[in-house]
Amino acid sequence: MGKKTVHVSDFSGQVIAPEDEVVKIVVLEHPDLVAGPVRLDARPVEVESIDDAALDVAVVEIHDQSDDEPRRVVLTASEFDSLATDTPMAQLLRTAERVRPAKSTRKSTEKIDYGTLEYAGRPHRGRVTDEEARLVREHLDEVNKRLADAGLRQIDPADPEHAARYAFPMAGEPTVAGNPGEPTVAGRDVVAAGAVPPSA
Q: How many CA atoms lie within 13 A of 9 on its CB side?
């Protein structure tokens, strides 16, 4: 028994046809983000107005004696410009002292060890070690609970990308619980059992 993966839009929940383009939206900053950037999939028509809605913004750091670390603030350029009541902001920016962006306070030697149960399975760019993959396979429920609590994507052994990344065994039949023939939602994809895999 084979299976077929169907992409679903995160924005509308509608199925994205195989011949349609999938637009990847990476959310870098948002008030509701709790653990770093996330990826959302969409149909082109759903996000075509994003460029029109873009704002001219100013991103500033506020350094004062009351805080150990600078505060980073994002506001519209017009709001920031209105703070200059003597000389126009455009002129101030041309003549102001140049500075280098503040460096991260994290020590360069401080690294996250994804080969521990505390961090195994968290999204990262580096290669997944054999130890991390083993921890994910042997403690999948615990790992997924930790990921869900942190607002991160969970690991689905039925997802080919996850199966390859964490070396899950590729079974001949779907292992997702449910009635045969019923699609099961896993992350952003819908996996339908019973589909005939394409011939090699």
A: 17
